[in-house]
Amino acid sequence: MIDQTPLDQARRLNSPPLQGRGRGWGLSAGRLDQLKGFAREMRHEPTAPEKRLWARLSRSQIGGHKFRRQSVIGPFIVDFLCPQKALIVEVDGDTHVAGSDVARDQALQQQGYHIIRIANDAVMQNIEGVCAAILGALDQAPDRWASPHPNPSPEGEGLFQINEKTSDQ
Hints:
By secondary structure, the chain is α+β, with helices and mostly antiparallel strands. It is 44% helix and 15% strand.
């Protein structure tokens, strides 16, 4: 295994890998395509709690935050992801195995993600409380990206030069 330098440890989560390290969690293109196919199938056939929660998470209804559903992150498919806050929301039902969930959560946390788990029953019986808990987690989580690049530039670079050229004629 390659030792990490202080620069590696300080790099931002959305920056490209240094010297080819960390690319694709070590997954082959075929495996990644397979995971994307599974995620697509899961989006088309959600469980009742996932469908109910997605109705509240979609269209930026919770604090203006955008979510994706059944999103592929490395070798995992997560139920819901807010990319800006690196927040993962998992709806737990009968299919979740506690031991594998712990290992999965640790791997995702090492990559900078925050995970909250919500029981199926809570989604079905107390959707308002679930949404409040998610909003609280979003408010506590720092933005994943420090600041977006303004487009267009606030100084108006480019436009000013074009206007100068046209006014000379």
